[in-house]
Specification:
CATH class of the largest domain: Mainly Alpha
Radius of gyration: 21 Å
Strand order of the largest sheet: 1-3
CATH architecture of the largest domain: Alpha Horseshoe
Shape: globular
Order of helices and strands: HHHHEHHHHHHHEHEHHEEEHHHHHH
Distance between the termini: 18 Å
Structural class: mainly alpha
Largest sheet: 2 strands, antiparallel
Mean pLDDT: 91
CATH topology of the largest domain: Serine Threonine Protein Phosphatase 5, Tetratricopeptide repeat
Number of strands: 6
Number of domains: 2
Length: 451
Amino acid sequence: MFRRYIFLITLTLAGCTKFVEVAEPIDQIPSNVVFDDDTKAAAAVRGLYSVMISALYAPFGGSLSVCAGLASDELITTSTLVDFTDFQNNAISTSNAKSGSGLWGNLYTTIYQANAVLQGLENSPNVTPAAKLWIGGEAHFCRALYYFYLVNLYGPVPMPLTTDYTTNTYLPRTSIDSVYNLIISDLQTAQSNLDNNYTAPGNRVRPNKWAATALLARVYLYRQQWQAAIEQSTAVINSGYYALEPLNNVFLNAGKENILQLVSPGTNLYTWDAYVFVNLKAHLASNLLLNSFEEGDNRKTSWLTKVTISNTTYYAPYKYKVSVGTGTAKTENTTLLRLGEQYLIRAEAYANAGDIASARADLDSIRNRAGLPLMTESITQQALLDTILHERRIELFSELGHRWLDVKRSGKADAIFGAVKSGWTSTDILFPLPMTDIQRDPNLTQNEGYN
């Protein structure tokens, strides 16, 4: 099933670093070639980030934001390509390239890279114990991140933990609970191994302890472990490393709200999201999203911009302001984790745990920044939960599929999407597995509703 992704990993590692000089599958590369000192081991872990954002419509190069945004109710596409109209119409083909290779394939490629790094560290006698900790911590974090998106987009998925492609080729799907258990274990290991500080001062493009904690808070929220989510998000909020920023500063590299970013590729000054939304005008805000803003919400004017297509005015996501140009003075990178989400995580967990006052206070932190009135003290638990879902829609729109995943996990997909999307069916909530992998692996089954 995954043989072609192994080949991609070999190419990726060889292309990003010069220490891989053999043409064997990654599971046959001798550990003393790749991991014979700290420097080469550190170079290997850098390859974990390249596939995610190396090209337009890589997972974090626009695909997650665009494809999940189109599948939900927040984006519309101006493209006539079936790869995108499939998502907008919730009629995704099992041969859809953006789902099959863009998301599924690239996420598995990076999982194999993470497994290769962990295996190489374990087998190397030359990498120092200190380097093994932080390099392994990053690999565990990355693997958890990739599995998080796979299990939420596709449901039960194969869970390779080694680089033995002869075994991985015939893996069956693994239960959602088992995948989440691995995600939590990986993030706890990353928490223990990584330092509070970032690799380089002023640079938040490699995960630290707080990035692992922030993602763990999200995972616990998705698993409805309210107290654990409160504890993890509180640790991030109270760490002293982060602060809510004014709206136009949130996505800047120098902003204190950023917990983790990915570096834009090459000399591009722009993020892929800005390039797609503003420069190409390929995917725009839906009327459903535009009409969901409350009157006076400054996010509507700060995070959306007018674009004109054939004399018609539309609005494009404008969280990232730089959409053209090349050079060295990058001011924005793609934000993976930020503090605003942590307040919303804690608000939702508090509300579900019955602590209405604390939930309201966290929600007010986000609403106050947006210029909105604070919540009334008499608000009921259900009304507060509904308001939090609404605030997540507005605060996190066009960011890596939050809206799609939020409605999915809320159990309200049929009610929300079914009311506004023609032809919606309950099985649309999961993306299809690529048909080529189904054909290769007799142990792999397709999601319900797809042929």
